[in-house]
Amino acid sequence: MLPATLALLATLTAQAPQTDQTVSASRGTRLAIDNYAGEVVIRGWEKDAVRVQATHKAGTTVDIQKDTGLITIGASTKPPHGTVDYEITAPTWMPMKIEGQYIFVTVEGVQGELSITTVRGDIAIKNVGSATAKTIKGAIEVDGARGRMSLSSVNEDIKIAGTTGELSAETTNGSITLDRVESTNVMVTTVNGDITYDGSIADKGHYSFATHNGDITLTVPSTANATFAVRTYSGEFVSSLPAKGPDPSEVRRGRRVTYTLGNGSAEVDIESFGGEIRLRRAGSNRSGRN
């Protein structure tokens, strides 16, 4: 037998048998998933049932337990800490908790409370309700969320788009980008990375943007009502907003200065130690000066 054929047969032999099981879920039931390594993909549907499809190697057993108010999904693998890839379809209303060490997580179309924690792996969530997502070495992407978001990474970027609701995002070595965001409360912090915000500023809202080594760029409507408290130690400050305050060219580095737009209803704190701060009028050119 040809070596290539032998290699193909060995690969096919190593392929995991497919697990495919569906369990019913009454309203109010929570879903808990614990996966050491692999991919977890979850999509919402209108059925009151959870379908679990898993790919794994021979010798692995996927365990689905159903108790009052809780469905748990886990696996025993040989060798221990093996890889399991899940494709799960669950009710849109179902709250979920997903945990693992080396997992890449994608969740779409789920409106129940969502909690995701991984040590190493990316997290992508789309068209969800409220969510908490934490990863140490992985990127986080959010698109189309409608609810409270709490996002945390250590060594990768965070990107949020088309999202409405209270929002907090923090990372250590990565940039944070927020596009088409509508919120009354935003808190964004990073140590080594840029911050970009393009969204609304709500009356009486609270917004905070801080980075140690990076630039901060805010693009907001000129019709917003906000008080901007701005401080940069080693970078420049430029603005194209029709806000009342000192001439940006005369601002001393390290000094906290205040600018008022409209009636100044919202509070916006902006601070960068080693980067430039730019306030842009929505629709202005990329220089931020016109």
Defining traits:
290 residues; mainly beta; 13-stranded mixed β-sheet; elongated; disordered C terminus
Explain this structure.
With about 290 residues, the protein is mainly beta. It has a domain of about 110 residues. Helix content is about 5%, strand content about 55%. It is built from one helix and 26 strands. The strands form two sheets. It has a 13-stranded mixed β-sheet, with no helix packed on it. It has a 13-stranded mixed β-sheet with strand order 5-6-2-8-10-12-14-16-18-20-25-22-24, with no helix packed on it. The longest helix has 12 residues. The relative contact order is 0.09. The C terminus is likely disordered.
Summarize the structure.
The chain is mostly beta strands.
Order of helices and strands: HEEEEEEEEEEEEEEEEEEEEEEEEEE
Q: Terminal Cα separation, in Å? A: 72 Å
- Which percent range fits the helix content? under 10%
User: Which range does the strand content fall in?
Assistant: over 45%
Q: What are the low-pLDDT stretches, counting only 5+ consecutive residues below 50?
A: 5-14, 286-290
Lateral strand order in the biggest sheet: 1-4-7-3-9-11-13-15-17-19-21-26-23
Class by alpha and beta content: mainly beta
Radius of gyration: 23 Å
For the secondary structure, the number of strands is 26
Q: Strand count, sense and closure of the main sheet?
A: 13 strands, mixed
